[in-house]
Amino acid sequence: MILQLTVAVPVLAAALLAATGRWLPRLAVDVTALACAAAVTGLTALTLARCGHDPQVVWLGGWGPGTGVGIPLAADPLAAALACVAAALTLAALAFSWRYFTEIQATFHALVLLFLASMCAFTYTGDLFDAFVFFELMSVVAFALTGYRSEEPATVHGALNFGIVQSIGAYLTLAGIALVYGRTGELGLATAGGRLTGTRQGDALVTAAFVLICTGYLVKAAAVPFHFWLADAHAVAPTPVCVLFSGVMVELGVYGVARTYWAVFPGLVPLRAIAVLGAAAALLGAVMCVLQHHVKRLLAYSTISHAGLLLVGVAAATPGALAGAAYSLAGHAGVKGALFLAAGALLNRHESVDARELRGRGRGMPVSGVTFLVGGLCLAGLPPSGLFAGHSVTEHAALEAGWWWYTPLSVAVSALTAAAVLRVWLVVWRAAPTGRDPGGAEPEGGHEDPETPVTLRSIPWTMLAPGIVLLGAGLAAGLIPGGPVAAAAEAFASRDAYAALVLDGHLPPAPQAPPADPWTLAGLAGAAVTLLLAAAIAATSAHRSAHRSRERSTGRSTGHGRPAAGHPARRFPGRAAAGAAARLHALHSGHIGDYAAWLTAGVAVLALLTARF
């Protein structure tokens, strides 16, 4: 019953709040939602503790294996851990929302609980079609949460872009599921995978099915060129929703690709396309992250970059790389959730998330400042964080697979994303406050309405404590023993092990795998290099930002806030860098037609790289 309760409890609580929330006092709404999220967190933690020695599988509707119509819920260790992460982040998001987000009464809490139910169900389901159903339930709720402030045009625009791009991806995923069903007559992951056993590599129908199914997941994972929706959505979504989007929803897209490949298509299609798109996302996300001043957009592009690294780890198709991806996912979820909560504190205290407008104004918010400092260091791989462990283990596995390029990629993008966050800390918490230049450029974010009914003169502990806990969890994730992580990755990467769990209800013998050990000389050296690079880039960028701010304040600028023509920043290579940055910004135009065109191009690239010639 534990798996059914994990899904049923938040659905029932959401229905109760939706029906009665307008008459309930706000305290009752908050307590009910928090209690539900805490209960689900406990259930997922119990499932994680049991699944290593006691089979956690149930067939819904009274149907069992062999009937062809049963719907299984099954929890192997990695699936249970991901569900636990989703529940913990939901609990933190609801704690941050305590007493606030009152415009739509209890509907906000009901939507968040439905989002939790759909995430857990997607993680546990062993059926292709039901995975699609739960994934789309997650998307529909995400659309509504993104458009929480429907009276603001920017919010509607971001939610609409999100909805259209995700819907196109969903249609393609459904078409791929139909191809699998047409070939095998099965929708179960384990049974369909069994039917495809013996299929020759390069089978056109199998390749097409894999490409179409993964397209929807790659849209959610924000792989290039499916990523355009993410920054637009994060810029307008409420802070607790951003925590769920970046902390777990994007990672569920990566999980969907990994689960679909290992359970249904192992060895039947190459994963080079996933590696290429993941590497492109890592690089582009890191560069765009450095170019941002809007803090929520900056963190969103950081998510794109780290999700790209996760995809490359999955594409390496080895249990070792998968173990590293598991470490990285856990660390990223905690750290990114804490950073978004700190950004939300800035918004509700100063009515802005533009770093230029916030220069020096964070000095009265020491807890949020520490969160940004430590969070940025964790993104660079500060030991013993989960991101340090993940990078170390994945880099070792990639080198064993002959992917020498992964280590410089990981170091570069980790340094850039960490530097962007550290630059925010230097500008907002360490720089001297400066006046706005009346003739200068309008800040990218400008004034934004707070998410609370009034601007907060001080940040309540209910907004600070969740971020501290999440940051501590992300920092400690690298201390998880390597043996169980390696064993879980071995089991996840075995189609036979998954089939035995789902179809036979028993656990195969624990695979003998070397522990995933992040504490190696190479791993520590890589972390040290990344930290030094991040600090140097952040210091240089903050210094240039301060110089430009002084120029604006003294009038040594053009009427548009740009350096005068003779300034070195206007010379080559400054002009080349500025031109490249302008082109990158132009690509992220916000026009849904452009995004749909890029999505179509991405499907074509994915198909070409996956096909065997």
What does this structure look like?
This protein has 613 residues and is mostly helical. The chain has one domain (2-610). 69% of the residues lie in helices and 1% in strands. It is built from 22 helices and two strands. The protein has helices spanning 2-20, 26-51, 77-96, 107-124, 128-146, 153-184, 189-196, 204-220, 228-236, 239-264, 272-290, 295-315, 319-350, 366-379, 386-400, 406-430, 461-476, 482-492, 495-504, 521-554, 574-587, 592-610, and strands spanning 57-60, 71-74. It has a two-stranded antiparallel sheet with strand order 1-2. It is globular. It starts with a helix and ends with a helix. The model is unreliable at 437-445 and 556-570 (pLDDT under 50).
What's the β-strand tally? 2
Count, helices: 22
Q: What distance lies between the first and last C-alpha atoms, to the nearest angstrom?
A: 48 Å
Overall helicity: 55-70%
Portion in beta strands: under 5%
Largest sheet: 2 strands, antiparallel
SSE ordering: HHEEHHHHHHHHHHHHHHHHHHHH
Low-pLDDT runs of 5+ residues are: 437-445, 556-570
Count of separate structural domains: 1
